[in-house]
Each structure stands twice: as C-alpha cells, then as structure tokens.
Design goal:
Number of strands: 14
Number of domains: 2
Oligomer: single chain
Order of helices and strands: HEHEEEEEEEEHEEHEHHEE
CATH topology of the largest domain: OB fold (Dihydrolipoamide Acetyltransferase, E2P)
Shape: elongated
CATH architecture of the largest domain: Beta Barrel
Largest sheet: 5 strands, mixed, barrel
Number of helices: 6
Strand order of the largest sheet: 5-6-7-9-8
Distance between the termini: 37 Å
Length: about 240
C-alpha cells in the first residue's frame, strides 16, 4: 500500500519499531506523511517552502478521500477531495498544453475514492497540495488503514514533542496522559444524569494543566468518540463507562 508508515520498504517511513531518533528534518524529507484533510489544513508555514505539523517539518503527504468535483484547465486538473473531516483542493499538473483543457482520467470521476500522493505547496498565502500521483481506491480497507496510519503518526509525534498526548508521571513509575486523567474524572460523574461540567474537570485537574488546555483535551475526546456532550456543550459523559 502506498504512503504507509507501517511498511518497512517505504523510504524513510516509520515502521512499528521506529524510535523516532535522529534528525526531524531528515525524517520529514524522506517520508510521505499520511494525513486527514483536517490535518492538512492545520499545516503551518514556517518560512518559504518550509511547512510544519506536529512540530515536525512536512513536505510530502498522502491523503485518502472521495472526489467531490473535478475542474479541468489547459495545464492541470483541480480536484476537490473530502474525507469526512474537511475538504481540500488538489492540483494535478500535466505535461504540455491542451487548449481544450486537460483530459479527464477514465478511472476517476465524481464520487470516486482516491489516494492522493503529493507535496505541500503555498500559493496566494494558502497551503495547498500539488499531486504527483492520484489513483482510484478499489479496496475500501485501504481507507480504514489510512485513517489508522494518520492517527498513529499524529499520536507518536505529539507524544515525542510533549504535545496533545504528552505523558505525565503518575508517581508510581507508570505514565498517564492528560487525556487519561480527564477520562477518569468524567467517569466518576457518570452516575449524574447530565455528566460533569468541563469547569469541574478543569478544577479537579488544575494541578495537571491549565483550564484552557483541559478544555482542549475534552474537545479532542469528544471528537474522537471517547466522550459525548449531554444537556449542553459543557456537560460531558464518557462513552466507555
């Protein structure tokens, strides 16, 4: 499968046993990073032709989604890709110039699921993707696999950099993430019909992180399906209790 972080034969890819040692710059230059469209939109421009996500430089990416629109021009095809997290535009340039517009591929149409391999680019102060390969997906297990790759890569990188999934010493030699502490508090209030208010979670975990950070983690847990809101956006219950 293309663009995989599990495949050992991918140049620079992160295999299951990767330790993330060595230069971040070197890793990013030789790795095709699996992303969701929302993650792609979160890429930050550091300087000219230098882009960063999860505190790591990123140049080449692979995205999976459904084609919502195709707009041909004399020099390229512009695809609108959606994967359930967001929508993005991808340009696929072709050689030569056709006054009648670029020829549409016979195996890709609106509604098709595709894998896009491309590079990150900046145009008109916006981050976009220039594709060097677009192919249709015939095995839908590839879609699930891609999302798992994107999640695994994000978790590993943010653990390493002390980001969203930073580890906190629990005092008994084991390490727990801030998300684990939040879920513990939420579960303690599962008997309450409305669950627990996010302000109460922040109050109980004020020795672990600030209120704004706690609220960010709560939002992440809701988005990932670990928790859900009840009477309003501020009362939370766990889906695991």
């Amino acid at each position: 499968m293309e663009g995989g972080f599990f495949n050992n034969d991918n140049a620079g890819g992160f295999s299951e046993g990767s330790s993330f040692s060595g230069s971040k710059r070197t890793l990013s230059e030789h790795t095709i990073r699996p992303l969701t469209v929302k993650q792609f939109q979160d890429i930050q421009v550091v300087s000219d032709n230098v882009f960063r996500l999860d505190n790591m430089d990123v140049n080449s990416v692979t995205v999976v989604g459904v084609v919502r629109d195709i707009s041909p021009s004399t020099t390229n095809l512009q695809y609108t890709i959606e994967d359930g997290t967001a929508m993005m535009e991808v340009r696929h340039w072709h050689e030569g110039s056709n006054p009648d517009g670029a020829e549409l591929p016979s195996d890709i149409s609106k509604g098709s699921y595709v894998r896009v391999n491309g590079r990150v680019n900046q145009f008109n102060n916006r981050v976009n993707c220039i594709a060097f390969a677009i192919r249709p997906i015939t095995d839908f297990n590839e879609i699930t696999f891609h999302f798992l790759e994107a999640i695994l890569c994000h978790v590993r990188l943010t653990k390493q950099s002390g980001g969203d999934y930073m580890q906190i010493d629990s005092g008994n030699g084991a390490e727990k993430s801030l998300s684990d502490y939040v879920i513990e508090v939420v579960k303690r209030y599962h008997h309450e019909e409305a669950g627990v208010h996010v302000d109460q979670i922040a109050k109980e975990l004020q020795h672990k992180a600030g209120a704004d950070r706690i609220k960010e983690v709560v939002e992440e847990l809701v988005n990932e399906g670990h928790c859900y809101s009840t009477t309003d956006d501020y009362h939370i219950k766990s889906t695991e209790a």
